Amino acid sequence: MSEGAVAERTYEPVIGLEIHVQLSTRTKMFCGCALSFGEEPNTRTCPVCLGLPGTLPVVNAEAIHYGLMIGMALGCEPAPRSIFHRKNYFYPDLPKGYQVSQYDIPLARDGRLGDIRIHRVHLEEDAAKLVHAGATGRIHSAEASVVDFNRGGTPLVEIVTEPDVRSASQAAEWLRLLRVTLRQLGVSDVNMEEGSLRCDANVSIRPAAQTTLGVKTELKNMNSFRFLERGVEAEIVRQEELLRAGEPVVQETLHYDPRTGALTSLRSKEEAHDYRYFPEPDLVPVAPTEEMLERARAALPELPAERAERMASEHGLAPDMARLLAYRTELGDFFEATVASAGGAEPRAIANWVTGELTARLGESDPWESKVEPQALARLVAMVGEGAVAGSAAKDVLAVMVTDGGDPAAIVDERGLGTTDEGELAAIVERAMADQAAAVDKVRAGNDKAIGAIMGHVMRETKGRADGAEVQRLIRERL
Amino acid sequence: MSAELLKLTAAGAAERVRAGEVSCGELFEAWRERAGADELNAYLWRADGPPAEQPAADSPLGAVPLAVKDLFCTEGVPSAAGSRILEGYRPPYTATAVQRLASAGAPLLGKTNMDEFAMGSSNENSGYGPVKNPWDPSRVPGGSSGGSAAAVAAGLAPWAIGTDTGGSIRQPAALCGVVGLKPTYGAVSRCGMIAFASSLDQAGPLTRDVTDAALLLRHMVGADPCDSTSTGLPEEVRLPSAESLEGLRFGVPPELTGAGIEPGVREVFEATLARIEELGGSVQEVALPHSDQAISAYYLIAPAEASANLARFDGVRYGVRKGGGDLRSLYEETREAGFGPEVKRRIMLGTYALSSGYYDAYYGRAQQVRTKIADDFRAAFETVDLIATPTTPTVAFALGEKTDDPLAMYLNDFCTVPMPLAGIPAISIPGGLSEGLPVGFQLAGPAFSENRILDAAHALELSIGFDGSAGRV
Predict the structure, then answer these.
(1) Does a structural domain hold residue B324?
(2) With bands split at pLDDT 50, 70 and 90, how would you rate the model's confidence at A269?
(3) Is the pLDDT of residue A425 over 90?
């Protein structure tokens, strides 16, 4: 094959995600210490989570319950008997010299969330935190490192996907779905900046149409959706450049620096790590009883993916629209409350207003905390539907509702934003057509776009109160 | 008065306390003074005064003080598991078994010497020097609970507890002429025991007689919320009273009683079998076909677990810290200085056995053998009630005799290793003397058969009438 052919080849990214979720249980994974939220270092510790001689782990029943809920929410099959293993390696943030984790038999496996298959869901304990004393706070220039064991032993659920993700944006979008699902379950704070949701990505690329997998690299700990997307994108580009240049991709762990966009190799020496997994002899297998499974099942709320399907069929929404609402729980709730209180307003129209104008004005903030009442929004949408207020004027009404609250009908009256009556509007249309004679000629000659100039004139005169469709009808009658 | 007291069994002393003939304080002081006369290096720490909380005179264990193997954590009291790496380490909590015994009225008398991290069969692997056998100070007391066995045999302690992983209670009990019981795995909580091999370690009593062993065991056992693998026993431990063995079937496995047993030990063993028949029991051969592989499986499983259990001794949080500058030297120099040669050998063996590419051939295969061994015992106990073997192939050997040959040392455990692999209980009682040294007789039973074992051992003990006074220095 010529070099040109290689250079022009298109590649398909193959991405799998590994997500660590800190559970918001009352106590740690294997001891009775309360979870830590920024307390003084080493104040949330006990002999067990410090790994003192003679101490033994005891599994946190609440963590198992949350783990089962997550497994079920992701459509996984819980294992009848899952096993804890020891993952052995030396590091000061690991007090026992091994992490208690799950290996060949995880808590649950083989599920799906959205378009992505879930490989496994397992339980483990978090490591402690190293604090590097020195100017930069980074390990390389540190004068000394100290260990804060508060975080050590926090329950973690690790979720591993199948390599089903095909782009950086899909990775970020799917992670959002996962986050909202976990938040809906109430099992974690799912805060990426604070590390309660952490995502690693395994990235490889392969020539389009090839079915075998390329060599993968692992991107560690991208602590926001944006960084995940950018990091994966940068890695895809890097791998493409390598392959186009005829160089191999080397299996390694990479760190993405969001400030510089650089990818640097981490612990390449430790890549050959042999963790010497073996079954943790201090623990017995986790064998969920029918009662435990039932309790986990009963604790599952309606999940975003299911909700999107239900909303699409119940309210006749397009799938994209339904997802938009369902993946932001508070938005979906506000939408459904508005629909429920609607006096004749069409759900699809309400959905457009909630995801369009309302979201544009509120941004990420919760509509329930705004001054807009669902009933008021329902009335506004109904008024638009009835032609009592024009679409463009209704946007101004909503702006008032967002800043001051209140009833849309009252706002329309107060500010004279109601639609003009037909006689008045006809007169304005006629004036506009006289004024825009050139545009009228163009439309007559077949340039339909020229109608915009006439419409614009009418809208200016009516200050947006006129209904666009009605204006158009009146113009066409007179052409 | 105090010399008289020291001759009593623990149960006997408890009775005197209960009868008001001696006070708790007097009893403790008498034993404290006696422990202070230790010339065997049996103790690593001794109480320097009466216990903070004096037990009640009517407490179940009658205020009789207890010697505790150094690997049990005792709050504020040195607990180093016989290792230099934990020199001076004082834990912030007390092991469940020690706590239970203290609550039942057995205050802590001292901490006894042991092979480092319980790895050894002669006590010569202690980081604090070997213990001497009270019957002959030129010989080993056995191990790893050598300090506990020697202290009880020498009358330096009324009773003691130890731990057994591959024979570490029964073997020193045999070599010192005392009673040692390894309970069913899970009967006693492991919480607070500095771990050697978690799936095998089990605490148990070392005592002058079978009654004392039953009494201690009764107050050690029980499920513990801090140990997920603890189950307790399904029925209360009874104080044994049997004098006959009528109706009991004893199995003798040729695999554990044939080659390798020295003639003097064999003689005592056979005499004890004859005694069983005199007492109404029947003796028959029973097969344990996989037990010849027990040592191999044990020396993969135990070191594998130990290699992980001992990873926490890294110089970061407690114990010895050496090296510095960088992390690697901290780890390497701390562990180089803190661990003795046998511990290092086992960490390396275990690390190797778990390595990627070797796991299936070593650790995985050893676990399969372990299952076979457990199956052998289950099958055997369908035809017999108890299994009898010598506890050790030889009497106590000379200090230094086997230190250069680890394999010979390991083979010394071949009669005691199969039981912990199967998780079943076994006792060693003194069967008699050979060359003036004690010979142990071992009885093993199915899981949770402690009462059956104790009853049979009691009947035999009565009949044997072993005189341990020659061991008391």
Answers:
(1) no
(2) very low
(3) no
Whether A239 and A375 map to the same domain: the answer is no
CA B63 → CA A355, A472, B19, B54, B221, distances in Å? Answer: 77, 104, 12, 8, 19
The reply to whether residue B308 touches residue A97, judged by beta carbons under 8 angstroms, is yes
Q: Do A80 and A198 fall into the same domain?
A: yes
Q: What is the CATH number of the domain that holds B135?
A: 3.90.1300.10
What is the number of structural domains in chain B? 1
Mean pLDDT, residues A137-158: 86
Give the 3-state secondary structure of residue B374.
Answer: helix
Are the Cβ atoms of B327 and A50 closer than 8 angstroms? no
Chain B residues at the A interface, defined by Cβ less than 8 Å, are 71-73, 79, 81, 86, 89, 91-93, 95, 190-195, 197-199, 225-229, 304-305, 307-308, 310-312, 314, 316-318, 327, 331, 351, 354-356, 359, 363
Interchain CB distance below 8 Å, B354 and A276: yes
Whether residues A189 and A326 fall in one domain: no
- Domain-embedded: residue B379: no
- Of A372, A393, A415, at which residue does a domain stop? A415
Q: What's the confidence (pLDDT) of residue A473? A: 85
**How far apart, in whole angstroms, are the C-alpha atoms of residue B188 and residue B169?**
14
Q: Is the peptide bond before B307 cis (omega within 30 degrees of 0)?
A: no
Q: A267 pLDDT exceeds 70?
A: no
Q: What does the pLDDT look like over B230-271, one tens digit per residue?
A: 999 999 999 999 999 999 999 999 999 988 899 999 999 999
CA distance A206 to B159: 71
B360/B349 Cα distance (integer angstroms): 15
pLDDT at B404: 86
Instruction: Look up the domain containing A430 and give its range.
Output: 422-478
A330 and A207 share one domain: no
Per-chain mean pLDDT for chain A: 90
Between A421 and A150, name the one with better pLDDT.
Answer: A150
Q: What residues of B are annotated to the active site? A: 69, 144, 168
Range of the domain at B459: 2-248+384-471
Query: Are A356 and A280 contained in the same domain?
Result: no
CA A151 remoteness from chain centre: 25
Task: Compute the half-sphere exposure of residue A423: CA atoms within 13 Å on the CB side of its CA.
Answer: 0
CB neighbour class for A446 (10 Å; exposed up to 12, middle 13-18, buried from 19): exposed
Tell whether the torsion through CA atoms of B73, B76, B77 and B78 is positive or negative: positive
Residue B358 lies in a domain: no
- A367 against B84, higher pLDDT: B84
Same domain, A248 and A314: no
Give yes or no for A223 touching B (CB within 8 A).
Answer: no
pLDDT at A420 > cutoff 80? no
Query: DSSP secondary structure string, A58-75?
Result: ---HHHHHHHHHHHHHTT
Could you give the number of structural domains in chain A?
3
- Which residue in the block uniquely carries the two structure tokens 């309210």? A315
| Bridge partners (DSSP) listed for residue A165 | A15
Instruction: Report the pLDDT averaged over residues A251-266.
Output: 87
ipTM, 2 dp: 0.96
Which carries the bigger pLDDT value, residue A421 or residue A171?
A171
Task: Summarize the confidence of residues B77-97 as an average pLDDT.
Answer: 98
Q: Are A116 and A311 in contact (CB under 8 A)?
A: no
Of B429, B440, B430, B450, nearest to B386 (Cα)? B450
Structure tokens at A331: 């938005």
Single residue among A388, A415, A442 that ends a domain in this structure: A415
B202, part of any domain: yes
- Whether residue B356 and residue A276 make contact (CB cut-off 8 A), yes or no, is yes
Enter the tokens of residue A327. Answer: 């993946």
Mean pLDDT of all residues in A306-334 = 91
Q: Is the pLDDT of residue B157 over 70?
A: yes
Are both A223 and A316 inside the same structural domain? no
Cα–Cα dist A271/A190, whole Å:
29
- Coil, strand or helix: which one is B218? helix
Q: Is the pLDDT of residue A3 over 70?
A: no
Answer yes or no: do A261 and A186 share one domain: yes
